[in-house]
C-alpha cells in the first residue's frame, strides 16, 4: 500500500506528490507551519489526505506549543491553506472538540491524546476507503473501460483511495476492467499520479488528454465514470477537480453512468447547493508554465479555478462508506448522515 502520510518520531512524513512520477521522495514536517505549507503547495493533496494532514498538523503544533493559547493560531493557520476541501475543516473541528474536552488536563496528556487522535483519523480513513470500494464495486460493469478524472486514489487519501478504491475493489472481485485517466490540466494529477498508482497495481491504464473524454464516451467503450469529491452539498451537487463538470455533462449526453466516491466527511449538509461552495483560485503560473517551462506569452491573462461544481442532476450515484446514495439526494444523503 502507498504510504501517503504517516506520523513518526521525526515528524509528519508525506510523499511529495509534486515530484511524482519522476521521483519518489518524502518530506518530513517538524512543525505545523510546514504541514500547512505542504497542503498549500500540494505536496499533499486530495480532500481526505488533506484532512489527515490537518489533524496531524494540529497535533504536531501542540507538541511544541508553549501555551494552550497557541491552539487557535495553529488551527487558523491550517484552515487558511485551501478553501474548497471540506475534510480539512472537518478534521480541524474534530481535533478542536477533543482539545476542548481536555481543557484543564496536564499539557503532556493533551499532547499525547491529540497525537493519538490524529493517528486514529488516518487509520479510520483507510478503513473508510476500503468500505467505499466494496460498496461501489458492484456498480462497475465487467469487461468495460472506466473513465476517471484527477486522482482520487491512495495518494489523495491515507491509503487505498475513493474512486480508485472502487476500481481496486472491482478488480479484486474478479472484474475485467481497464481505466482511462484524464490527464487533468493544469496540475496533471491524472497523468502524474493516477497512472502511476494503477501501474503499481498492474491495473491496465490508458492516459488521455482532457479534451478526448467526449470522443471516448461517445464510442461506447466506456462503461462508467468514477470520480472523487472535495465537497458535496446537501442536494448532491459535487465540487471536484476542474474539468469534472465537463465530463459529467458528456457522460449524461452519452448515457454513461457518472459515479462519485467520497467519505461521509466530504458531505457538507450546511450548504444547500453547490452555489455556496467556495472555489479555490490558484496561481497563473500553473497554466502559463509546464514544469517550469513557459508555454504562453508573457502577460497572458489567466483564470485558474482549481475546482468546478457538478450539479446533482448529472450524478448517477454517490458511493460512501455507509452505502450508495441515489437521487433524490436531499433524502438519500440525509439518511446516510443521520
Describe it for me?
With 338 residues, this protein is α/β, with parallel strands linked by helices. The chain folds into two domains: 5-129, Up-down Bundle (Four Helix Bundle (Hemerythrin (Met), subunit A)); 133-337, Rossmann fold. The protein is built from eleven helices and 16 strands. The chain has a seven-stranded mixed sheet, sandwiched between helices. A four-stranded mixed sheet has the order 11-8-9-14, with helices on one face. Strands 1-2-3 form a three-stranded antiparallel sheet. The longest helix has 31 residues, at 107-137.
Q: How many beta-strand elements? A: 16
The CATH architecture of the largest domain would be 3-Layer(aba) Sandwich
Uncertain parts: none
Query: Roughly how many Å apart are the termini?
Result: 32 Å
* Overall domain count: 2
Supply Rg: 20 Å
Q: Percent of residues in helical segments? A: 40-55%
Query: For the record, what is the CATH homologous superfamily label of the largest domain?
Result: Translation initiation factor eif-2b, domain 2
Structural class: alpha/beta
* Major β-sheet profile: 7 strands, mixed
Global morphology: globular
Strand content: 15-25%
Lay out the secondary structure:
Layout: E1 5-8, E2 11-15, E3 26-29, H1 32-40, H2 47-64, H3 70-79, H4 86-101, H5 107-137, E4 145-148, H6 163-172, E5 178-182, H7 189-200, E6 205-208, H8 213-219, E7 222-227, E8 231-233, E9 238-241, H9 244-253, E10 258-261, E11 267-268, H10 285-288, E12 289-290, E13 293-294, E14 307-310, E15 317-320, E16 323-325, H11 329-337
Parallel strand pairs: 4-5, 4-7, 5-6, 7-10, 8-11, 10-15
Antiparallel strand pairs: 1-2, 2-3, 8-9, 9-14, 12-13, 15-16
